[in-house]
Write a structure and sequence with these properties.
two-stranded antiparallel sheet; 16 helices; 360 residues; Rossmann fold; 2 domains; five-stranded parallel β-sheet; alpha/beta
């Protein structure tokens, strides 16, 4: 298992899930492995017997309760938010806790077809034997219906309208019709769908009101305060550094604070004290992007430095994360460097010099 680049949540947190199942004392819904309260503990953190359960999502507890309660009913769940607000992360961990299998995933893109939502055919077998269940290729949604589990659809708003609409009858009737076999496959108890949608993609393929009515919609906000965002970033960077074996020590607290400060200010279009208005950048400066930036800085330090993240490493990663559009972002980043970072004194002085050199 150590050769696998990314373990699914149910493997990565196997011991925690087993402890929650073993110590279960509350009613377990049909098709679930644990009770809603245990799922909440798995997501938000706590204890199960002597086992410490690490928090997977750092945010509004009530929002997570609403998500779990939705999945207890026959309603599907739609998670909406800005990029990097942990929609996919929460979706994966919900399915890992509820079913022990988070792999039934459809990644929504412009190329996603209706067959990927419903079913397709093994055409060699189809030509040789004609339509049959043996020649049927089941989609993740089909498999979830058949087993009474949860399917995940990532970035549903990236799918074409006709592909999205293939879900309407499935979510309404809880069955898939196979006209070629004159059959209908009913969903078993426990079946549901968790979809995610990016607010930045609004208008790309706007979901119909008919489809939206089949979902309970939960909006996941960006971290409400700076300390929460720092804690999220620090936790994930620590986890990822262990997984990747980057040969670098974690950045110091100052590095986390400075990166999150820069991201929050550019994202919000003003400094934290509200005194200076800032030009927005075209990139999405989310907590997820900050995590990636700091992990990349550790990779630089571990591979080409002395194993300690320096301001030079941070500046190189910041340049790549912020300047996505050379024409627009470079000007906004230059303005920020000169009007904000340069005036922040000793703590930012060296980082400012390194950033300015790379942005020249």
């Amino acid at each position: 298992m150590s050769e696998i680049q990314r373990l699914p949540a149910e493997e990565l947190y196997k011991e925690e899930l087993e402890a929650l199942i073993e110590n279960e004392t509350n009613p377990v819904p049909d098709g679930w492995r644990m009770s809603p309260k245990s799922v909440l503990t798995y997501i938000m953190g706590g204890k199960s017997g002597n086992k410490v359960i690490t928090p997977k999502y750092m945010g509004d507890r009530r929002l997570v309760e609403i998500c779990i309660a939705t999945l207890v009913t026959d309603r599907a769940l739609l998670l909406i938010g800005e990029p990097g607000t942990a929609k996919s992360w929460l979706s994966e961990h919900l399915t890992a806790a509820i079913n022990g299998n988070s792999s039934r995933v459809i990644q929504g893109t412009a190329g996603t077809t209706e067959e990927q939502i419903r079913y397709s055919w093994n055409y060699a077998m189809l030509l040789a034997q004609g339509p049959s269940f043996e020649s049927l290729v089941k989609s993740p949604v089909y498999t979830a219906m058949e087993t009474g589990t949860i399917a995940r659809i990532e970035e549903i708003s990236r799918c074409a309208s006709e592909v999205q609409d293939a879900l309407i009858s499935i979510l309404s009737e809880k069955r898939i019709s196979i006209p070629e076999l004159s059959e209908e496959i009913p969903a078993r108890k426990g079946f549901s769908v968790i979809a995610t949608a990016n607010t930045r993609d609004k208008g790309v393929n706007e979901m119909s009101s008919a489809l939206k009515r089949r979902f309970n919609i939960v909006v996941l906000p960006a971290p409400a305060d700076m300390q929460t965002e720092i804690d999220i970033v620090k936790t994930r960077v620590s986890q990822m550094s262990d997984s990747f074996k980057l040969n670098s020590a974690l950045p110091d607290d100052s590095a986390f604070e400075r990166v999150v400060t820069i991201f929050r200010e550019l994202r919000n279009g003003q400094t934290l004290d509200g005194q200076i208005k800032l030009k927005p950048t075209t990139g999405v400066l989310s907590a997820a992007e900050a995590i990636s930036l700091l992990v990349n800085s550790m990779a630089l330090a571990g591979s080409f430095g002395n194993g300690k993240v320096t301001d030079s490493d941070l500046a190189s990663a910041l340049q790549g994360a912020i300047v996505k559009d050379e024409a627009k972002d470079k000007a906004a980043w230059t303005e920020y460097l000169e009007n904000v970072m340069r005036k922040r004194g000793k703590e930012y002085a060296n980082l400012y010099a390194e950033c300015r050199e790379r942005n020249a």
